[in-house]
Amino acid sequence: MTLKISVLGASGSIGRAALSLALSFSDLLEVTALAAHSNLAILNEQIRLFKPALVSVSTDELRRELASLLADLPRSLQPELVFGESGLISAAIDSGAQMVVSAVVGAAGLKPTWAAVNSHLKVALANKESLVLAGDLIMGKALGTLSPIDSEHSAIFQALGGRLRVPELKKIILTASGGPFRGFSRKDLESVTRQMALKHPTWSMGPKITVDSATMMNKGLEIIEAHHLFGLSYDQIEVLVHPLSLIHSMAQFHDGSILAQLGPADMRLAIAYALSYPERWPIVERAERLRAKSYKEELDHKKKPEGAVKDLSDYQALSSIPDLSFEPPDLHAFPAMALAQAAGRAGGLAPSILNGANEEAAAAFLDQKLSFIGISEVVGECLERLHSDERLESIDQALEADQRAKALAKQLIAKRF
Ligand code: NAD
Ligand code: MG
Question: Angle at the Cα of 132 (from 18 to 201), degrees rounded to 5?
Fold first, then answer.
């Protein structure tokens, strides 16, 4: 029996890694829908390889362009082409998929995730922003159907045997690589550039999450994500910087035992577990076999190191690991994580405001219109100025707060530039 999947954010880092698994496990996975913003070259190749029934892009113009790229395909292989927000939702729920790989970046991922949850589909969730904006609403409906792709949350999910709520769980320790600026002082951070921020020491990811990792906002968003996924209070979620990115996170139980998950920094492992849990697929063997005819050559435009998955189990691999060092995060140099923690504790609309402001600020930094330390300053100011005691009751309310924060952040950034 194959599992029918829809991949949202198909042209991105997680989407491509998920599709490389679909190639390795074509006996287990069938791709019924793809959605991406605008990268038609990648979509064109993916459509020919995976033959989905439904494909969504951002605009009607892109939809027409894609149709002409696919004109040579026989009618039976022409997918239905849709566009815009309704297209993205349709790609989530209308293709006959049983599971949605939710890997669009940013708040744009919330509506399709929500639609999938409400259609009782399984969701393998990479889009952490969905839980940041509307974790209570989503978890209220998706406890038995949601699995995390984020590597830290996957590590905890694995330690819990593919469950999200385990009463014996005492606390979790999320590990953080520390990003490219680990050890930098606040003063040092005043002069760092976009190029420096995009050089992540251990993971290869899309640009927004790479900037979030550099500011440590990513870890802040992950704290909120973990709070919702595992039903833990903020006091039960600790963060430790672990530069090797070998231990992907740890779960401590009431008897004092700690279960940690170790693995190479390769998102295919976390994605595969989100699809296969509580079973595990032989990723190492299959990906090894794919090496000769790798996804990299087939469809990744030689951007990402796919092919073999590192096997860490032999003596040499293990003994070449220098040491498992840990340190506390430097919240003075990297205030973004503390802002996220506070927004998570405040609840209501604060996490949506945090997210909107951060998306706008991270994009402005990538556009070289805001300095690196400006990112957390803008987020902090938006949180202060848009403070509200409203309770979160609907998805639209969360998205409106996110939009309000984006608009204010835009103004603040324009004033500084
Ligand atoms: P990316 O930038 O590489 O890809 C983003 C994808 O989303 C692209 O396919 C893009 O076309 C699509 N997209 C963006 N806006 C869209 C819109 N409005 N409509 C339709 N599609 C849209 O990002 P990524 O690194 O793959 O990250 C995706 C998500 O997964 C993020 O939420 C990120 O936080 C999370 N995540 C990523 C990693 C990683 O290793 N890359 C790890 C953990 C979590
Ligand atoms: Mg992560």
Answer: 55
Match 């992950």 to its residue by tokens: 222
Ligand 2 being an ion, which residues bring their Cβ within 5 A of it?
150-152
Domains identified in the chain and CATH numbers: 3-148+282-312 (3.40.50.720), 151-265+320-329 (no CATH), 347-417 (1.10.1740.10)
For residue 103 and ligand 1, the question of a CB distance below 6 A is answered with yes
User: Tens of pLDDT along 196-241?
Assistant: 999 988 888 999 999 999 999 999 999 999 999 999 999 999 999 9
Integer Cα distance of 143 and 335 in angstroms: 32
Give SS3 for 47: helix
Most confident of 241-245, 300-304, 311-315: 241-245
In which order are the strands placed within the sheet that holds 258-262? 237-241, 169-176, 247-253, 258-262
pTM: 0.95
Q: Which whole-number Å values give the CA distances from 248 to 25, 204, 315, 395, in the listed order?
A: 24, 15, 20, 31
- Please give the number of the atom of ligand 1 that sits closest to the Cα of 106: 32
Ligand nearest to the CA of 265: 1
Residue 247 has, within 13 A of its CA and on its CB side, a CA count of 20
Q: Can you say whether the dihedral through the CA atoms of 290, 294, 299, 302 is positive or negative?
A: positive
Q: Are 298 and 181 in contact (CB under 8 A)?
A: no
